[in-house]
Amino acid sequence: MQFLNGITLLLVYQLVGEITVRLLGLPIPGPVLGMVMLFITLMIRGKAPASVDQASTALLSHLSLLFVPAGVGMMAHFDRIADEWVPIALALLLSTVITMVATALIMQITTRWFTKPLAQKGPADE
Fold first, then answer.
1. Which residues lie below 8 Å from residue 56, measured CB to CB, with a gap of 6+?
2. Cα distance between residue 104 and residue 35, in whole Å
3. Which sequence spans correspond to the domains of the chain?
């Protein structure tokens, strides 16, 4: 029963996100907004309810099954992928490099914000 309560709560957040996006005309997917709403709720509560924990653990344990539709889609469009493999490969390569560089820069900036340099630490800070 806990699993059903958890999965229902996850789906309700997805539905609320979808409705909000459609009503406000936001340019983001509804499930993403629902996930942000769920994240904010969990941050306010400080922990995840047991039902949500159980449902999310079950979903994550079967995550590989969620990639089956993507694999079928790739097979259905195999001819197009074969014809346009160069732009696809370039897009994948460039987006990966840009993501890695952006992640590294953001990590450096946030590390500087949250850590005090050793030279500035005094004897009272240790």
1. 6, 10, 48
2. 25
3. 1-61, 84-118
pLDDT tens across the length of the chain (126 residues): 888 999 999 999 999 999 999 999 999 999 999 999 999 999 999 888 999 999 999 989 988 888 888 888 888 888 998 999 999 999 999 999 999 999 999 999 999 888 866 556 556 555
Q: Which residue type, as a one-letter code, is found at position 126?
A: E
Q: Are 49 and 6 in contact (CB under 8 A)?
A: yes
Half-sphere exposure of 23 (CA within 13 A, CB side): 7
d(Cα 106, Cα 102) in Å, to the nearest integer?
A: 6
Between CA 111 and CA 93 the distance in angstroms is 27
**CA gap 55, 15 in Å, rounded:** 17
Q: Which residue, among 8, 33, 6, has the nearest Cα to 18 in the 3D structure?
A: 33
Rg of the chain over CA atoms, in angstroms? Answer: 21
Largest CA distance in the chain: 67
